[in-house]
Amino acid sequence: MTARSANTQMLGKLAVIAVGMFAFGYALVPIYERICELTGINILALSERQVPGNGAAGRDVPAPRNTQVDRSRTITVEFDANARGPWKFWPAQRSLQVHPGELTTVMYEFQNVQNRRMAAQAIPSYAPSQAAAHFNKLECFCFDQYTLEPGEKKQWPVAFVIDPRISRDVTTITLSYTFFEVGGRTPPAPVTPVAAAQVNPKAGT
Question: How many helices (H) and strands (E) does the chain have?
Answer without folding.
Answer: 1, 11
